[in-house]
Amino acid sequence: MGRSPCCEKAHTNKGAWTKEEDQRLIDYIRLHGEGCWRSLPKSAGLLRCGKSCRLRWINYLRPDLKRGNFTEEEDELIIKLHSLLGNKWSLIAGRLPGRTDNEIKNYWNTHIKRKLVSRGIDPQTHRPLNSAVPGVPPAATSPPSLPVTEISLISSSLDRRPHGNGYYGREKLEPKAEPLREDNHCTTSSGTTTDEELKAPRNRQQAQGGSELNLELSIGLAPSCRELNRNASSVTANTAESKLQEVPYPLLTVPTPAAAAAAAAAAAVCLCCQLGSRSGGMCGNCQSNGGSFGYYAQLGS
DNA sequence: AACCTTCTCAACCGCTACCCG
DNA sequence: ACGGGTAGCGGTTGAGAAGGT
């Protein structure tokens, strides 16, 4: 059938944005809020396609963006999240207030990849580059993506947490910052969320469904492993939390060939430990896994 | 100073998921 | 249930900056 172009290419500017264009976009969004990107350029008097406006706003003009260098903590968090989520830049960005998916993607490709390689870690698989462990496939063969069901569980849990930059991807469920405009009949990225909460029970069910889970426990200022385990033990075996506990991430826990073998065999490593909340040492899960520390713990500090 | 190479990152492109009539 | 329209995502590109010769 063929897709209609997102904009009338003949009458749109391309390339770098001028200050005037930026100002027009900022002014317009200040007045009317985000949303209805398709019609925004016309309304704002911009000779740009809506997509371009959206990108410009999200990646550059949003007032809550944190410009400047990434901190060491951000670096490590990105690495950990990437090892967990793969190239889900928008989800990763959701955990880094003030950072955009594009920014993180660029930063990953230009800095972190190199950093990991210099550490001897394959940036795609998060395995040691020269690991030749029996039973563990070569680094380049398998991306660190999780099974779809697990990804969606994680996405849902991530999405349920508000984050500072107010940027929510399609799957994100948390309400955004209140839009500035009063009314908008378009489906908006900023205004839908409230509606979304009403209209999208499917997503909510996915996230809740009797299995409320909160990855913040693991990623941010994580509670002790014990606490997480206690919480996990209080829910039924088939809840999302317990599923997360079961997610096999041998990729994350391969510091040595021996540990790699142990991890691959056990294939069940405590998430909180993988995500770096091990300040107090190994948790019970990891201990039962033959001492397969997440190697980030050793590298990160 | 001029040229070349490498690096960075903003912007674009194409695809997919989702919404709505 | 279906199809069109739109927003959002991830991969890629290319212009400009920075560094090297």
From TrEMBL:
GO terms for biological process: regulation of DNA-templated transcription. It is found in: Nucleus. Residues 169-185 have a biased composition (Basic and acidic residues). InterPro entries: Homeodomain-like_sf, Myb_dom, Myb_TF_plants, SANT/Myb. Residues 135-146 have a biased composition (Pro residues). Residues 9-61, 62-112 form the Myb-like domain. This is Uncharacterized protein. It comes from Eucalyptus grandis.
